[in-house]
Amino acid sequence: GGTSRIYFTNGNNDPWSNLSLTDAGAVQAANPGLLVFLIDGASHCDDLGGRMTAALGQARSQFEQLFASWIRD
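^ that's the sequence the OP posted. Answer follows.
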């Protein structure tokens, strides 16, 4: 099987996101074990820092839910 349990987050203001996976539909079609989340208004590494916006909160919450399900399996 393919690689799974990978969560790609990219800010739509991050110039490095062009080097990442950004098309969630294409990624899911190629490998359903990979997830992509585009964070509106975020820049490079915002998802790892302390800044909080609604979009960052949503990305972090989704990761927490994914991680909880991954460690249960």
